[in-house]
Fold each of these.
Amino acid sequence: MTTHQGEDAAAGSAADESQAAQRALKTQLFDQEQEPGKPCPCGSSEGLHGEECDCEDGAVLIHTMRIPGSRDDVTLWEDHFACSYGCNSYTEKVTLPDAPWGVKETATDGRGPRERIRIFRGIRHGNYPGLIEL
């Protein structure tokens, strides 16, 4: 059986995309909610993680959610934080180049070529369930 370079490249590309999709899922769906005074399950300690909230003594910001943070930048995520006493919530943008939430591709149909982003399966992205036309 002969293989062609194009087939090998496509197989490698599919494997790379599968690994990227797994990293994105792990990035978005970290195992548990952050507990005050403990490291965040998302793996980061930068930004608002554990910052004190000024509403009550001992109140801290807890990382509650991460979703894609852009319509066209697949490396931009949006982290949501809530006060442990429930008085405030904040959003912070974070760029994660090793964990893109989708892949840019060129689609061709009767209208000609156009760019779009295909969101990885399982990733939640606001109003865009699967494809974003650019």
Amino acid sequence: MVDAVVAALPVAVVYFSGWAYLSSYLGEFGIDATQVEIAFSTVLVYAFIPLQDWKVVAYVMVLAALVYALTLVPEMPAWRKNLLSVVTGFFALGLLFVVSWAAKGDAYQMATYVWNGEKSQTVPVLSPTDQSKPPYPQFKACIDRRQVRQIIGLPEQLFLLCRSPESPCVYGTMFVVGKDGNIIYTANRVRKPENDNENCPK
């Protein structure tokens, strides 16, 4: 039983890392990650962004040193070994908090790239039937201004941000395009107070 838990722990930490990053990143655009269908493989791919953060790497090194210390002194009194085991267990639990902390910081930085227009413009191919619907003129105008940036692409949905021409790092409209090329959802988004918009790239 213990061996099974130890074997599953790294996978659980990696999955938690990916989910912490994605939920924080999507939250920067007002998207509830629990309402979006995200594949297990996608979560694992995004997991390596926070896992490479220096805070996580440093913490893992300290945790590894503690585990190694436990193996160096096999003859120590049982109570002391149990105490070290408890301390190591708490450090292992703390890893989740460090990963979550790193994931939020990395997600914020990536979201900033989108809001600042530093990601390349995304122009999806919409269904011809969708071009007669109300959201299309607004979406077409945003494409003409070259202000459409991809938030995330999933098998069933494509999330896009149309940056406002007046305050592009603060205000925007999110478009959700289905795999059939139809705009299925739009929502206005506000990110920061307007006084943080002074040096925003247009």
